[in-house]
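FAQ: What does a multi-protein file look like?

Like this. Sequence, then tokens, then the next protein.
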Amino acid sequence: MHARTKTADEPTTGVAAYPRRVLLAVTGLSPQIVTETIYALWTTDPALIPTEVHLITTLRGAEHARLNLLSPRIAWLEQLRREYTLPPIQFSPDQIHVIPGPNGTALEDLRSPADNVCAADFITERVRDLTADPDSALHVSLAGGRKTMGYFAGYALSLFGRPQDRLSHVLVSPPFEGHPEFYYPTRHERPIHVNQGGKEVAYDCQTAQVDLAWLPFVRLGSAQHRPLLEGRARFSDCVSVVQEALSERELVIDLHARRVRAGGRIIALPPTELAFLAWFARRAQTGQPPLPGITDKDAEGRGSAYRAAFLAELKRIDPLLDEDGKTRAAFGLRHGMLPDYFNTKNSKLNKTLRDKLGALAARPYLVLQETDGGGYALALPPPAIRFAPVPAPGGVLGRP
């Protein structure tokens, strides 16, 4: 047996604390990547061994995996578990997921562009489901299946991955790599035969070297648009969301219609949240510095100035909102803006934008405090901020 040494940069910290540890593999006709990966995890850190296994494959691959990994006569996964005294690992035919084709029937293989679209959507949906459980840690293996399947699995994990999720590829030394009779390095002598130069040459499985290569990836799990997290996750839709988040940013504030356009989406906002955003947008548009936070002691001084700027935006939305000072009383601004009011409005505004856009896409439009605990600001550059003209009496467009 050749155990490997765990390196400091492997993303394993804290994973063992999760009660549900899932190994997800995409496979074709090489289900041995399951046993090879579990063996490699055992040599790395036994606490990382999965509590359950899921496979994504084709119809042919599913039958091949079932017969080799689960059939009582062979049951390579159970043989590995017993030989190395591993903890129980949940795996059944129900955890072998077959990709459905365009017409809904199980795919024999991926042969057409339409088949690949189905595979992309199915893999993405499965990864989304497995990362939806906060008590789970997902480990995706890219070692098996067609290259497109591995790509979809890795990209899906990037789309929905969380800090505890991992991506790997298992490496097997020759001549054991890809051999249909090799499943893991055995404790005792077990020969397999390899055709070399027309002759069958015997090799001992216990001499095989199996290593796990951890693959870094960008985790965007907290950045997804809420409908994708809660609805059906089509691969193309997920990619579009991220693409929008990385595209050119522009904020258009329409005070008259009480809505904004951010990240290409129209978002209606309550008057106070819209006024709060407009206040900071106007500061950013005119190049003003971040606004310092306030304390209860600032209510009569700095808080009064904040109240005046905020109420000015409310009047632009609707002059009647401040008629006879009612706004000051109703919104708790009679004696200046207090920290609780400032923080509540800021939190509600940012939450609304994150819910509508997703955390990644929303970030440029949020009112955020500087990382060193300094002032609050909207980080958009002035050219990216625009106020829509508001109608003047008689239908003539007035100044924003």
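And here is the next protein:
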Amino acid sequence: MDRKRRYLSRTRLIIIVLMTVGVLQVSGCGNGQQTLNAESESEEHVPIKFGATYMTMNNPYFEALDDSIEEVVEANGDVLISRDPAQDQEKQNEQIQEMIEDGVAAIFLSPADWKGVKPALIKCKEAGVPVFNVDTYVYDTEYVVSSILSDNYNAGVQIAKDVMKKRPRAKIAIINHETINSTALRVQGFLDTIKGHDEYEVVVHEKITAELEVSMEITKQIIDENIDFDVVLGGNDPTALGALAALQLRRVDKDILIYGIDGSPDGKTMIKQGFLEGTSAQFPIEIGNTAAEKAYEYLAGKQVESNIIIPVKLITQDNLEDYDMAGWQ
């Protein structure tokens, strides 16, 4: 897909640029044709259209999630229409309206703003189009059939425990997205775990868009302001990688533990090379497959769970060999 190639090209370009400065040094709702009896004619399957819109496609996690949903849909002879609102909730609401008008049978949704998506959810309900919430919650969950997400809170807990195991004290920089519930839950899990331990101090907390380039710029600003920190918690892997790039571009010569959340191929590569300390791995393939399967079950008249939580697992150098370096979980 063109958007995937664009993302990959941009990511590779960033890595190449960093390498030139010595940074990374990385050497059933529809039926198929059925024969009713010897005399009857075969019924031709009419493809069902599904819609999907994620907060952004400028993140390989959502590419993996979209691919896994599409795999199930296409295996049933149906079609998935995917859209990228580029973190713009107004645009995403417009995309959802267009999907309703296009006659989709159901929509897979990861909101750019978990509260701002409500007008679109109301329109889906009025139109009788079921919504399956993936990756991060919508605020008004009564408008969705089912939410299929990672255990985001526990991702933060896992990282906090790892920090406390490896450092007797720490000054922590947190960078996450303000209007996305998933990253807020991750940070909350982290903060709840270090609560009451004054030796672990959050010295800066920046709430920005969860993209590599933005994180890189904000981390450079933190460095330029001479804020002292030795741990970075990124709301996702691109945020952590952006912080890493900034630290290297500013030639910061200090032992800083950097954590992401995703379990992306790039994140795992940086762990192997010793640049990231860890990433709490999500399982977008499992999330996507589960969401698509639940959509088909619902359209077939079956009852589905309203809340499905997929466990996360912390990846560090200690267990890196247990995971596919080139792919997603």
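Q: Is there any per-entry metadata?
A: Some entries carry free-text notes. For the entry above: The chain has ten helices and twelve strands.
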